[in-house]
Specification:
The structure is a homotetramer. Chain A is built from nine helices and no strands. Chain A is mostly helical. In chain A, α1 packs across α2 and α5 runs antiparallel to α9. Chain B binds a DNA duplex through α3.
Chain lengths: 192, 192, 192, 192
DNA sequence: CATGAATGAGGCTTCATTCAT
DNA sequence: CATGAATGAAGCCTCATTCAT
């Protein structure tokens, strides 16, 4: 990702993939939005698939930097989970197009789709470790940590996706308190 | 959906769409799996898009019959939410391919994608009504019923999807107790 | 052309052919407009081409009855030419769709196109005979009777076509005096 | 129409269209005759229709250059009409295929057909202006200049078409004196 | 490094025709 | 006689990829 030419093409690709999906996106459109000739795209990326693979790698890196790396190592489990939820929403807001791509292209048996799932699995695994630690310390009570980890991820990502498609500019961060509360504490009235 | 021929083609379409996604699925493959000539597919459905539209309609009907219609009208909110979760999982198990299609093709701006979202919105709205009733009766305590409804749906569907892609035959119903518990009551140890 | 069924289909064919042209017309549309099943069309006419051949035959007959047969055998050449022009315009008015088909499909090397040209040649030959007779009697002075015959036919038919496409209901007969005069006498001011 | 490749394809298109007509012509055949791959045709012209539109534009230009621009501005009306007839025949001879296409595809309601008619209307209008001028100067005596203009055009074009289909190599220019004379002066014997 | 013309495999769709009922 | 479901050849068009400049 050295040259700025490469980056311009890459950004155009994210743009186009998120708008059309992998199959319907065309290399012509990507080249046009990047403002380069089609041959140039092929000079920097060997194929359409390759462009997509790059996306996964880049995304994994970003997810690390912008979400996982920000989880406080020494806080309590609940607090760490709250941070995950909040930062994941922030990540969605900051990388809208990219997130749409991932969540749309993760379910299937094509090579790139497995790649995307691997990335999600990796992320969910991080959630799981927080939960495991919380359980070990007696702070949390979770029978099926794997299921719970996926359901947290699913709840946050699907909800975010829904609001983004309702309104491109929706401030996802405002959902954070509600999601944190309902996911961690549930919503049955304590009184009952 | 009268003739059995029509149904055969429709089933083949679900099959192929779930395996390849809308864009990559080919009418040739659908015809081959249905065991008819390509022209026959077009005799029964006027286009690829049309086949997809049928899918939405059929799916909406199934979702109604197999999930929404089974929610007990007079039970308590918590109980009704548990049923929704359980039946949704059962629905995923019974209509694996169809569900994969929906969740994959729901996010985008194409006509069929909006159609799918409309269907999801409809379903989530049903969850929301249960929550509203529970809040009205004091049984539940929910600040943001919309967000919570989407997060329930997202949690269940994403988790189901994940397990299905890990193992086609995974018994999704076994996830039900865990999801019911963690979603409704949260998972912070009561002790703390 | 016995049964009324056959006639209904034939009329529908003229309708559709004149609207779409031979190639773009479909047997489905013809069947639909005739109010019969597609198989029925094939029961009465062996193929699309066959339907077209019928058209030529039928048209030739009509042209005979409605134009050629009305030329007074014993009148002077000029008078007979005037009748030809007038009756040809009347024929266009009465068989609008059919005439459009003929003039559109006459120029090409396909079998049916040669057939149509044969029909035109036959008609133009009738004009030529009038001219020849007029020349023989000293009434007319024509160096190239063949060329003149075609140019009369071309002038009348093209002009008619133009007005019909400007206005479906245009009264073609009103063109008759003008065409008769200008074709037979020319239009250079006699004074000069 | 810059590159020679583009021109080769265009020529092949005229060739094929004139031989088969718009509907029956295939892009495969055009590509084959141009000696390029099918994709190449689409690289230069975005659709079959587009190729046809080009034809109209190109043809309109040629008609201007080769016919209309050659009409002497200061000659007498009769002389100018003679030139129109002569140059139109020359145009038919020089652009045989193109002319066949135009006259065959001008009558119908499709977009391209209206386009072709527009072109003819433009041309006939030029004839009409000559006639109008001749009438104004007292040189001609024409009651219905519009009808006469169309009939001149129809006479020349239909006659030319007929001879071309009889003999591809027929020397159309030899028809000019006959057509000029019979159209302008009529053919009733002056003696009578 | 960059270009963009050229390619051809492959996809969607149409439609004349057949044939079992 | 009549039907309409079924067929498959054939047409239009797209687009990832290559390559000579």
């Amino acid at each position: 990702m050295a040259s700025s030419r490469t980056r311009r093409i890459f950004q155009a690709a994210i743009d186009v993939f998120s708008e059309y999906g992998f199959e319907k996106a065309t290399m012509d459109e990507i080249a046009a939005r990047a403002g380069v000739a089609k041959g140039t795209v092929y000079y920097h990326f060997k194929s359409k698939e390759d462009l997509f693979v790059f996306l996964v790698e880049e995304g994994t890196k970003l997810l690390h930097e912008q979400v996982l790396a920000r989880i406080p190592a020494d806080a309590k489990a609940e607090q760490r989970l709250r941070v995950v939820i909040r930062e994941l929403l922030a990540f969605f807001r900051a990388n809208r197009d990219f997130c749409i791509i991932i969540l749309r292209e993760a379910w299937g048996e094509e090579g790139r789709q497995r790649e995307f799932r691997r990335m999600l699995v990796h992320f969910v695994h991080a959630i799981r470790e927080i939960i495991d630690a919380g359980v070990a310390s007696g702070e949390l009570m979770v029978e099926a940590p794997d299921t719970v980890s996926w359901s947290i991820f699913g709840a946050v990502s699907n909800t975010a996706l829904h609001y983004l498609f309702m309104d491109k500019e929706y401030d996802l961060l405002s959902l954070s308190p509600q999601l944190e509360r309902s996911l961690i504490h549930g919503f049955v009235s304590p009184a009952l």
